[in-house]
Design brief:
single chain, alpha/beta, Serine Threonine Protein Phosphatase 5, Tetratricopeptide repeat, five-stranded mixed β-sheet
């Protein structure tokens, strides 16, 4: 992945007592603004500011950083009650909504900013849209779901829930290539997100769908000898490749009922792979996990 481009000037800037109203209060009506109160003599400030800039840069314009030198601009710092630095305040919709003091590590700064972003009106609208898309997908209205997911991605290109959802829509329509292309749009640091991994696993499981006659032959083999667990496992793989997950789970559960550690846990591993592909909320996966748990802890 290439280095991130430098920040546009308006994303990280210095403010004065005179420009604070415009640079912070008014600007926060468009997106959240973090204000970093600092001074040249402050050692912790020198370690905090570069980390703040790095994290702001990684959010691609969703949040701004405004730096205020309190030696040159004591007015706003006094109004804000700043008594020790570094001090950071988050503004949203024209008012301070959160803050912290001291040089926090990068991970905690990211959590702080993520919490601010998740509570904005825009974030809440995206959450509502994602819920509508998920509801449409579960109802079988793939076209509507795809349109909503696409709109969310347009507003937030790094939204992994929307990327995974749109990829599942393409997968439901049999367009696996487009599904993989959508997944590849995820930023490198989110490529291992469970939502993205879940769809990739599903695509891998469905990579080689069997011919109908091959599936019929596998079914006949199991019907003749239900204790042929290798044949039953092969049938389960063929079923899941066709997206017939319920049937596949039934056959794997049948193997595990007879031998929980069959073939060194091969059936159990395949079952868990199917659960991952379906996702944690899928009712088929929920019921499958319940059945597996009953076997393991009975």
């Amino acid at each position: 992945m290439t280095d991130l481009a430098p920040n546009p000037p308006e994303n990280i800037k210095d403010a004065t007592d005179q420009t604070f109203l415009q640079d912070v209060v008014e600007a926060s009506n468009t997106q959240p603004v973090l204000v970093d109160f600092w001074a040249p003599w402050c050692g912790p400030c020198k370690s905090l500011t570069p980390v703040l800039e790095k994290v702001i840069n990684s959010h691609n314009g969703k949040v701004k950083l405004v730096k205020v030198n309190i030696d040159e601009n004591p007015g706003i710092a006094g109004q804000m009650g700043v008594r020790s630095i570094p001090a950071v305040f988050a503004f949203d919709k024209g008012r301070p909504v959160n803050g912290f003091q001291g040089a926090l590590p990068e991970g905690q700064i990211r959590q702080f900013i993520d919490q601010i972003l998740s509570s904005t009106d825009g974030a809440k609208q995206l959450e509502q849209a994602l819920a509508q898309a998920e509801e449409a997908a579960h109802a079988g209205d793939i076209g509507t779901a795809a349109q909503i997911y696409g709109a969310v991605i347009e507003a937030d290109p790094a939204n992994v829930a929307a990327l995974a959802g749109l990829a599942r829509c393409y997968m439901a329509n049999g367009d696996h290539d487009r599904a993989r292309q959508v997944l590849d749009m995820a930023p490198e640091d989110k490529a291992s997100d469970p939502a993205i991994k879940s769809v990739r696993t599903a695509l891998d499981l469905m990579a080689e769908a069997p011919l109908d006659e091959d599936l019929a032959t596998a079914r006949e083999t199991v019907a003749v000898d239900p204790t042929n667990y290798a044949a039953r496992f092969d049938l389960a793989e063929k079923l899941v490749a066709q997206g017939r997950n319920t049937d596949a789970i039934d056959h794997l559960i049948a193997i595990l009922t007879a031998d929980l550690d069959w073939d060194e846990g091969k059936a159990k591993a395949k079952l868990l792979e199917i659960f991952e592909a379906l996702g944690p909320k899928d009712p088929i996966a929920v019921e499958g996990r319940r059945r597996l748990g009953s076997l393991m802890f009975s």
